[in-house]
Every structure is written in C-alpha cells, then in structure tokens.
Specification:
Largest sheet: 5 strands, mixed
Helix content: 40-55%
Shape: elongated
Distance between the termini: 141 Å
Number of strands: 27
Radius of gyration: 43 Å
Length: 947
C-alpha cells in the first residue's frame, strides 16, 4: 500500500506498521492544525489558560490552580510541556519548577480532549472550553471526588482569566460499554445518547495531551469488527496498549438515540434555535437512513485514510452542512436549506459585508460557501445586521424557525413510534417537550406572542409612537405602535409594528418582546381616549415591575402539571376617565358615598374597565379585558373561577392611573377581590353580597363556578333574602354593601341552625321586627307597637310553638337540645355614627304562659289550595262551617272575649302545617310568612267588625 495515498489495512493480511504510523501522523497532524486554529482565535489570557491546562493535570503543585491535596490524582500520560507552557506556569507562581515523573510512573490521567466547536468554523468569541478528562479506570470513588474538586478549582481560576471552561470526568472502561452514569454532567445531552455523543467526539475532539483514540487505527469498513480488530492490533503488538485510549466503536446507532438526541436539541432550540437547527437536521438525516446510517465520524475517518486532508473540508461543521445539503436537495426542500445556511452563517459569526478582524482561514472558508449559495451583497448585509434586526425581520425569521422546530418534533414522534422506541422515559419527555413547544409558540386568544426566541440580541426601540386610530364607527377603534416619532398626519404613511384592539394587549406585547424598556421615549396620540403620558408611563412601569424580563426558567416540574395562573395584574380604567364631567369643569363631588362602585349621591360606578394580565406557570403571558358596568364583577368571577379550577390563588396586584380617584379605585378593587376570595373560595364557601350603584348582586359558588344573582333594587333584594333554602349557606357582605342600613347589621349576625330576632322601635308607636331563621332566610314586618313586651312575646311564643312541633319529628336525644334563639334591639346611635346592635335577654317567662291562644291548622284541599281551621281557645272555626266568613266569625269571637275596648292586633300563637309538611322540614320563614297572611286576614276582619 502506498504511504502517500489511500491506506486500506487488512488485518488478515497483516498490517504494515509504517502504514499505522502514517495514519497516526495524519490524525495528529489534523489535530495539531485544529488546535492551532483554536489558539489563534483566543485572546491572550484565554490562550494561556488553554496552554497550561494539560500541565495543571500533569503536576500537583500546591501553588498552581487546581491543587486539592497531595493525594489528588494527577499525571498526564506521555505529556511533556514545552517552554511556552512552562513560562505561563512560572508567571502564575515563581516557585514552580517542572520535574519529569520518575520512571515507571503511569499517571492517573490518560487523556485530555477539547470537545465541541473549537478549531472549527463555528468557534466564536462566546465559545467555551469543554474538556473531557479521561482518567484511569482503577481510581477509587474518593480519588474521583478529589479529581472533580480539582476540575472545579481550575474552572474557577479560568473564570478569573475571562475564560469559561468546563471539565467532564470520563472513565474509558465504562464509557466504551455505554455507561456514563458518573461521567458527564447534567449539562450534557443525557445518558441515552451514547453513540451520537461518541460520533460528535470522534469528529470534533482535539487531543490536548495523553493517549490518542484507538478508533483512529480501525478502518471504517472494519467498524463492525472493531473489537476483534483492536484486539489483534494490541495482541500482535502492532501498537502499545498504553499509548491509545479505547472509547468504543461507531458500528451502529440504536434508533432510540435519535429520539433522545432530537428531544435534547429541541429543548435547547426553543430558547436558542440557531444553535439547534443544524444538529436537529443531522439527527433527522441519520434517522432517515436508519438502520444503514453512515455517521459523519466515519466519513471523517474515511477521508483521512483516503489522504483527503483538506482542513477546511474536514471541518466538522462543513461536513455537517454538506451532509444536510445533500439530504435537503434530494427532497427538494429549498426553504429549509436556506434556513440551514443562515444558521451556519450565524454560527460562524463572520461578517463578510464588512472588513473585520475575522481569522483569515475562517473568512476564506465562509466566502467559498457563500459563493456556492449565490448570496448577493444585500443578503450578506441583512445577515450581518442581525444585531439590529427589528420586529419585521425577527417575525419573518421566527416563522421559519418555529416551523422547523415543529417539523422536528413531529418527525421524532413519528420515527420513535414507527420504530417502537418510544419507551416510558422518552414518551414522558416527548409529552413535556410538546408542552414546552405549545407554551412557547402556540397561538391562542389573549396570549402574548413571543417573537424573538434567541433571534436578535435586542429589539428595544429608542423612539416609538403610540396612537389610537378609528376605522368607521368608534367601537372599531384600535391601538397602533410605530417606530420613531411621528406626527398625526404622518401615521397613514407608515406601517405599524403591531396593532391591537385594546391598549394593554399592545403594551404587554411590546414589554414581553423587549421593544420598550425604561429608556424608550413614546409619543402619544390618544385619540378619543383619556390616555395621558403620565398614565402610559405608569402602565409600562407596572408591567416591568410585575413581569420582569427575562421570565424565570420554565422547569420540568411546572410542565409536568397543567398550567395555572401565578401572577395577575389588574389595570383599571386604562385610557378612561370615570368622571369626565367633573374633569372638564375642574370640580370635585363632595359626598359621604366614596365607594368606587357607588360614588357620590348619584351612586356612580367609577370602575368602567379592567384589563387583566396573567402570567401562568408555563411562562405564558395572557391578557383579558372586561368593559362596562359589570367589568369589575366579570373580572372578579373570572379570577375566582380560575383560582378554584386550579386550586391556586395567583398573586394579585391592582393598579389604576386614571385621571380621577385612581388610588381609591385601585384600593377598592383590591379589597373587593381579597374579601370575595376569602369568602367564596373558603370551605364551605359563603355567598357574597355586594352593591353596585343602587342594585345588588349575590355571588355564589355552584359546582365550582361562580353564579351571579342580579337584584336590581332593594325590594328584589329583600325578596331574595326572604326566600327559602335547602341548606344553610352563610351570606357575607361586601364592606360597602347596604352601608348604614340595619339589614347589614342583621345579616352579619347570621349563624346556621340559630333563630335570631331583631327589633327596632320607630316613631309614631311603630316598630320593625325581623327574623333570621335557622337557614339564614330573612323575614321582616312593620307593625304598631305599644311596648317592647307586647311586640315581642307573641312572636317568641309562636317561635316556641314551632320548635315544639319540630321536636315531635326528632329523636328524643335531639328533641332535648334547645334550639338557639337570640334577641337583638337595633338602637339609634349618636349623630353621625351608624346604627348599633344591642343583645337582649330572651324572656325566661311569658313565652309559655297560657295567654289567650289562637291556633291555625292548614290542610291541603281538593283544589290544591290550603283549607284553614282556626281555634280560639277551645272553639273551632272551620271553612266547612263558615265558608268565606271564616275570618269574620273568628274575629267577632275574639273581640267578644276581650274585656276592654282597647284596639290592638290579634296574633296567631301556633300554626300546624303537619299535613302540608309531614317530615317537619319546613323552614321557620315559611311558617312566619303563612302566619302573617293569616294574621293580616284576621286583623282586617276585626277592623270591619269594630266598625
């Protein structure tokens, strides 16, 4: 075989040692040239760091970076530092003097390799140093821990030299078997991608010192017989075992690795798509050729054996591009190919339209590729100006990148399932990735679209114009954002960067995508709105304060659960003036009614709109708007429904910067949300009564959702409060509801299972008496009052009789329990102070005194009406005897029994409804209501009888 040309060693025929030496020299020559390219690209301090790293692992000097203890593993196989390296070491510590290791010392470090983009067209100023530290397999756990500590100390020292270096410990013996459990860090691509990682290693790794890869000496056509070939190389002493490092072969790649690698690259691509698209496409190429895939590392080795040693064509990223190019041209997917070219150009970080300090070889190589692509000057300038790309360019680029990432996700899913390699682990990963893609790129109503996933470094604008514009009817108005400072007439000549129906959505979009920062100046054309520069400035400041960019990193834990709201910002009355008339006249209303939902004597609702900006656990920013008189209630219900659905209350902030009473409005809304949340999300939940202007609304949780009962006036409210219920449900009052009214005092005293009686003496010998029954229903009546005793005793006797009747249907133990009954007087307070409740002692005597008893018994009739019988003392009056004159007859009898001529009402002291309610479940309020009807009829008849 010719040493100057292609080498094809055959183990069966015997291998020429000179051929092996030539092959080794070819690989080491390429390695040396790549290392030289790496060093050329590094600044002086980073250059010195990379130069001295092999020495730091070879020696264990206490004054050099990385020293842990005297027993720390060290000694790099076959390494001898040159004079340049020793000069760098002596600059670190003058006392250092290099001494060669004694004869027989094998060393604990077998090899150091620089991995990744170093020495390739993709190396840039931002590239870090990823170094594999291949140590002796026999090291104990304690020694490995010390070696890891040494690596960390060197990393820390490198950082002080403005150099980012990462070290990964590798045990060659276990690595070659696919076991990396205690090898690479969690920052790598995961333990399920052994062969694809090895493929990348063999085509990109640069040997810094130590043993060369045994893989170099195995021809690509012998890869399937790797173990036998390498065994014979060593056993027949073609090479010495201690000179090489065996990390394994590239004979096959399991199908599952393509899924794992693709998932990893997709994960990274969501934030930095340019870095991932190339590797995603390579994964797709490999997967499409499975199982007869020929990986790039084998192409690289084949080229070296064939003596094709053009360093530019062997550049790992050029080889990667060539492979993808052939694949996409064959599929006629030219748009995807153009995206790949842009990704490579950006990865190379050259600017061919400018004369820069780019390395000569790198610039020449990129110019050659660009000529092949037929890029013109304009396209080069656009790519070189990526640092100043704005919304238009970024949006167009985003569309293609998102399309590519989505395509890769679908391809991986289909490939994995068709090859039966979707196991429980990567099935979960696929689902998590699908959620991550959905959160990052899926469009949905109200969601703020992120247009810059790592495309341009900065989209901020120094000058912007914000304008409200109308098309036809006022309700068709929209908000537009323009670049630069424009006058009103100039707006029609410029295309907006973005326009939305509502202002907050536009501001949230500008904030989320970084168009607006604290230094941005915005010209405002408010149109018909009341937006001021003061309000706009504060709105943007609130968005920056509550949703600072960048958002927190989205964790796997968060994605494994359904998304839930985390933070909610309510912006009240954006661009609206709740009191426009007073603003125009520069006057202020003076009133005791300061509630924003019922302000001044006119009871104005000052809350005209609420914009809700929510950040959820998947980092999705969503905007919703509520308008009109019901804006506050709708926003409240939406907040409560979501909080209950997710069993999580998002952090809530309320701001308002409108022209009138902004602080009071914000405080009122925040208090209302806090109070309603406390009542309606409690277990069990309470009902919540609030007053909006002169109407009332009761919020109640039914089957998880908030149900609203609207009551347009006080009369309807009283009907609602008096309606029967199937079970007790506490009714909590908003702090401004029924302010100054005795009804509020009574409702606040309600307790389930207890009957409460309230009375209030009025002028002209009148009184108002109310009862809250055991299920919280309210009954009220106004009547003549001679004194408190005659007012209360008939009612208390009636309530006592109802309790006795209920006990009949209860067990003996329950019947012995006293049903709680409370009595309160509503007293007038001093002038300017509210009414107050005064607890009264329930009379211990008189309730069961044998006064003249009037009992009524109701039974169902044939026509579904109730038939009534009245017992006055022991005398019965029934409809069967008296027909329509029943009440007249009973009234005359009662009047005849009275000794004096004083005029006072007749009271029903007992009511039997057992025929109507056999189980005895009827509410007290029902008894009271029916009793009142009977008393009204009886007293009316008595009035006629007197006349």
């Amino acid at each position: 075989m010719a040493l100057s040309g292609e080498i094809q060693p055959q183990i069966a025929e015997g291998i020429d040692r000179k051929a092996l030496t030539t092959l080794r020299n070819r690989f080491t020559g390429i390695n040396r040239s790549r290392l030289q390219r790496v060093l050329q690209a590094l600044p002086a301090r980073q250059y010195n760091v990379l130069q001295v790293i092999p020495l730091l692992f070879d020696v264990n000097h206490p004054l050099l970076p990385g020293y842990v203890s005297r027993s720390t593993p060290h000694g790099l196989a076959s390494y001898v530092p040159d004079s340049n390296v020793l000069q760098v070491a002596q600059a670190l510590t003058r006392s250092f003097s290099y001494r060669r290791h004694p004869a027989g010392f094998t060393g604990d470090i077998q090899s150091l390799y620089l991995m990744g983009s170093g020495g390739t067209i993709a190396q840039s100023d931002q590239s870090d140093l990823d170094i594999w530290v291949c140590h002796a397999p026999h090291l104990a756990a304690g020694a490995i821990a010390e070696l890891a500590a040494k690596c960390q100390l060197i990393t820390d020292w490198a950082a002080t030299q403005s150099c980012e270096a990462h070290f990964h410990l590798v045990n060659p013996a276990t690595f070659s078997l696919g076991d990396r459990d205690n090898a690479l860090s969690v920052e790598d691509c995961g333990s399920t991608q052994h062969y694809l990682l090895l493929d990348e290693f063999y085509r990109t790794a640069i040997l810094l010192g130590g043993r060369y890869p045994l893989w170099w000496l195995v021809p690509d056509y012998e890869e399937k017989h790797y173990a036998d070939f390498t065994r014979q190389l060593i056993e027949k002493r073609f090479i010495r075992a201690q000179e090489s490092l065996d990390l394994g072969h590239m004979a096959r790649i399991p199908a599952g690795e393509y899924v794992g690698a693709g998932l990893w690259q997709l994960f990274k691509g969501i934030e930095s798509p340019y870095k991932s698209v190339l590797k995603l496409l390579l994964t797709e190429v490999y997967a499409s050729e499975h199982p007869e895939v020929r990986c790039l590392s084998l192409d690289f080795k084949h080229a070296v054996y064939a003596n094709h040693l053009d360093l530019d064509e062997l550049d790992p990223y050029v080889m990667l591009y060539r492979r993808i190019e052939r694949y996409l041209l064959k599929r006629q997917e030219t748009e995807r190919l153009e995206l790949v070219r842009r990704c490579l150009y950006i990865k190379a970080d050259v600017r061919l339209s400018r004369r820069t300090g780019t390395l000569g070889w790198k610039r020449s190589l990129m110019e050659k590729l660009v000529r092949e692509w037929h890029w013109d000057t304009r396209q080069l300038q656009q790519m070189d100006n990526r640092q100043v790309w704005r919304v238009g360019e970024v949006t167009r680029e985003r569309q293609q990148l998102v399309s590519e990432l989505t395509h890769s996700y679908r391809f991986l899913s289909q490939f994995g399932r068709s090859n039966g390699v979707i196991n429980q682990v990567n099935s979960r990963d696929l689902s998590l990735l699908g959620r991550r893609l959905y959160a990052a790129f899926e469009r949905k109503a109200g969601k703020i679209e992120v247009i810059n996933p790592g495309i341009a470094p900065d989209l901020s604008e120094p000058l912007l114009t914000l304008a409200q514009r109308t098309s036809g009817e006022p309700e068709q108005s929209s908000w537009h954002l323009y670049r630069g400072t424009l006058s009103q007439p100039e707006l029609t000549d410029h295309a907006p960067l973005k326009y939305t129906r509502h202002l907050v959505e536009l501001l949230a979009w500008a904030h989320r995508n970084g168009l607006v920062d604290a230094a941005t100046r915005i010209a405002v054309h408010p149109g018909d709105s009341a937006l001021s520069e003061f309000e706009l400035s504060n709105l943007l400041a609130s968005l920056r304060q509550h949703f600072p960019q960048p958002l927190p990193v989205l964790t796997e834990t968060a994605l494994s659960r359904p998304s839930q709201p985390c933070q909610a910002l309510l912006l009240v009355n954006v661009g609206l003036d709740p009191l426009p008339v007073t603003s125009q006249k520069n006057v202020h209303l003076i009133s005791s009614h300061t509630d924003a939902l019922g302000y001044s004597g006119l009871r104005d609702n000052l809350i005209l709109s609420i914009d809700q900006v929510t950040l959820n656990s998947w980092n999705e920013l969503q905007v919703g708007r509520f308008e009109g008189e019901q804006a506050c209630i709708q926003a409240l219900c939406d907040y409560l429904n979501k909080a209950h659905e997710h069993q999580h209350r998002p952090d809530l902030q309320v701001v308002c910067f409108c022209r009138n009473r902004s602080s009071a409005i914000a405080e009122r809304v925040e208090q209302l949300f806090q109070d309603a949340t406390r009542q309606l999300l409690a277990e069990p939940p309470s009902r919540f009564l609030l007053q909006v202007q002169n109407s009332f609304q009761v919020l109640e949780r039914k089957e998880g959702l908030i149900d609203i009962t609207r009551l347009p006036d006080r009369e309807r409210l009283m009907r609602y409060l008096g309606s029967g219920r199937t079970s007790y449900s506490a009714l909590a009052l908003d702090r401004f509801a029924l302010q100054g009214h005795d009804t509020a005092l009574m409702l606040q005293q309600a307790r389930g299972g207890e009957i409460q009686v309230f009375y209030r003496l009025l002028p002209d010998r009148q009184a108002e008496i109310s009862v809250l029954d055991e299920l919280g229903a309210l009954w009220r009546i106004r009547q003549a009052c001679r004194d408190e005793q005659t007012l209360l005793l008939p009612l208390l006797r009636f309530l006592h009789s109802i309790r006795l009747r209920r006990q009949i249907n209860q067990s003996l133990e329950l019947s012995l329990r006293e049903e709680p009954l409370s009595l309160y007087a509503i007293r007038p307070a001093a002038e300017g102070l509210p009414l107050r409740l005064e607890a009264q002692r329930v009379p211990g005597q008189g309730i069961e005194t044998d006064y003249y008893a009037v009992q009524a018994i109701a039974e169902p009739g044939d026509d579904q009406s109730l038939k009534v019988s009245i017992f006055c003392g022991q005398k019965e009056f029934s409809e069967l005897d008296h027909g329509a004159d029943l009440f007249s007859a009973a009234a005359r009898h009662i009047l005849n029994q009275r000794a004096g001529t004083e005029d006072y009402p007749c009271y029903i002291t007992d009511l039997d409804l057992s025929a109507v309610d056999p189980a005895g479940n009827m509410q007290t309020v029902h008894y009271l209501r029916y009793r009142q009807r009977l008393e009204d009829a009886l007293n009316a008849a008595m009035g006629i009888a007197r006349s």
